[in-house]
Amino acid sequence: MSTAVEGLSPEEQQEKWLEEGKAVTKQQAFLMKRALDNGNLRDGLKYASNMLCELRTGLLSPKNFYELYIMIADEMRHLEQYFYEEWKRGRRMVELYELVQHAGNIVPRLFLLISVGSVYVRSKEVSARDILKDLVEMCRGVQHPMRGLFLRNYLLHCARDKLPDVGSDFGDNVADSVDFLMLNFSEMNKLWVRMQHQGPVRDRERREKERLDLRILVGINLVRLSNLEGVDCDMYKAMVLPRILEQVINCKDQIAQQYLMECIIQVFPDEYHLRTLDEILDGCGQLQSGVDVKAVLIALMNRLALFAKNEPGSIPPDVNMLDIFHSHVTRMAASVDLAGILDLQVALLNFAMGFAPEKLDYVDQILQVCGEQLAASGSPRVDGAAERAVVSLLKTPLISHGNALTIILLEHYAPLINYLPFSSRKEVALLAARMMSKGSAPMTTPEEVDALLSFVQPLVKDVAEDEGEREELDDEDLEAEQSVISCIIHRMANEDTGVLFQMYVVARKHFGQGGGRRIAHTLPPLVFRSLQLALAIKNLERQEQEVAVSSKKLFGFSLETVKGLAGSEPNKALRLYLQGAQAANDCEEDKIAYEFLSQAFILYEDEVSDSKVQMELIPIFIGTLCNLTHLDIEDYDTLITNTTKHAARLLKKPDQCRAIYQCSHLFWNDKIKDADGKPFQDGKKVLDCLQRSLKIADVCMQSGPHVSLFVEILNQYLHYFDAGNDKVTIKYLQGLVDLITEHLANLDASPESLAVKAHYASTLAHMKAKKEGDEAEKFAELNI
């Protein structure tokens, strides 16, 4: 190859040298194949030697040298095939073996020797052991690191299918193959390590990069060893691993030791590692100080954990892997930083969860060690690699075990979350909450509720400004989080009503720290669960069974809980008050129902000012009051009068009209009865409500077409006429029919007017059916 050219960058110069080498290779390969086709072996060897001389260069980088080597090795297949054909024609391989040794340069000579040796082994003229031993010894003639590595890699490539092994055509003494591979591995490792010490110190970083590029050439020896069928676990433990570890330890090179230890873990079977744990871990303790032993142990533990999970019955009973790993990890703690210690414990935790998921005492022991290390660091919060490790320590057992509550109740688990910054605490808390909401095991004691909600506190409690951490969540994200917390409320269960009540008390204590945005999601389900429990306790009281807490106390608890929501969510709190009134009525607690309703009215008067919301709430008030069956007559009269007043105060006249005619049903309620059992029916006040709504509808007509209001009122009159209210006579129906008919004649065509006409037509059809049916006498005076 030519020398360096000024003006070219290093990359351009490398490309130029590579192209020159490829050009020579192509030319000499063509001449070699032509000579071989003509039966001229001597010229063929000459051209092959010229081609192989390109591998004597020291100018190419490992990457480019490898590309040139692959090209030449591919061309050498033609020469090897020629040697094989010569042997098939009766030529003795020993002659060719001696002939190629006359090549002038050692690099081409040894490549040619290996090619002939490959066919020599196939011929079986001499045992494979002798030829392989001769070749591996001869390769010592090349001591240039990069040339020597590729030469021995070529030897390994050519011998890959000719190694003595169980069932092999070239002998079944696998020890011969082990000796060959170990000798080649030893020599390649020495060459690889020697690269580190050649050249000036300023090029050290470049040399390390080149070494990393070439590491696979050394590791392929171990791959070949692991592929030998005859190397069983006993031979591996007695003969193979000790020799590998001896070479690794004695080379005293950080890069080599790091790579080769990782290579051992990756290429040999998991069963072998189980039987040689002590040997591997002892070897780790003898590595250079700069070697990342932590990464080696983590790789080993992760691999064995996966094996234990996938093949649980394959673990030998006499191998206590947990204790072995724990003792070695503990000894290493003094030589690595906090993040390194935590990473090791994460790997150990993964291993413990995979190997023996039922032995949570091991998990807690690991967590205890981590807690002690974090406490010793003196830092209240961790970051970077240590933060990621703590997150893994908390997430791994949750995911692996599946029962979030069981893990959270471990003595040394929950305290670890306090070392994380808020965002990471929240991440772990959300995982635990989701698993708890979907899990199969409920919380059954107040202590369990307290433990869980304390752990997921980042989701339950607002972040205080003095903590130096901020949380910015949009409504959608907050709602998603709080819906998970709300589900947890339904994971509380206990047959003892007193214990269940205490669980709700603990939950309310935690939820109360959440601020207005959070309690809007968490308190409503707690109220519903409390009312449900009150109903259950009331049933027990009716059966005269002994109860630990009374239903009245549950209603008091519910009432106070809703009050806590009233300040930030008055609309939602008001609806909960009405729900509480309904539940109290079902329990025949009229005074408690009245208290719930009174609080609802107070909240409506003090906090609800939006006319649209007011209009939404009035029908809910009416519906609730109509369904209450156990209220005292006087209390009921007070409440419905109050409701009617609020209906009359609505801002918009159409809303007033509709609300007031709806209030008429409060004065005609069959479910409310006096002391004599007579239903609460005040026909005069019903008529007053209808007449009042009719006047308001007439006022509305002055500002626009509101004929629909008259049709709706007509239907109300018709309802009470059918129900037997003697104050509502046929003249009111006739008057409304005439009024609506007159207004409809002047109504412009529009989608709204069509809807009104359709509604009116249906109403007329109903009245006509009544007039022509069984009630003809009642409707006789009606002219439609």
Give an overview in words.
It is a single chain. The chain has 784 residues and is an all-alpha fold. The protein has 35 helices and 2 strands. Helix 8 (174-194) runs parallel beside helix 10 (233-251), helix 16 (338-355) packs antiparallel against helix 17 (360-377) and helix 16 packs parallel to helix 18. The radius of gyration is 45 Å and the shape is elongated. The mean pLDDT is 90.
List keywords for this structure.
single chain; 784 residues; two-stranded antiparallel sheet
User: Number of helical runs?
Assistant: 35
Average residue pLDDT: 90
The structural class is: mainly alpha
Note the overall shape.
Answer: elongated
Largest beta sheet: strand ordering = 1-2
In terms of DSSP E residues, the strand content is under 5%
End-to-end Cα distance: 115 Å
Helix fraction bin: over 70%
Uncertain regions spanning at least 5 consecutive residues? none
Q: Strand count, sense and closure of the main sheet?
A: 2 strands, antiparallel
Computed CA radius of gyration, to the nearest angstrom: 45 Å
DSSP, total strands: 2
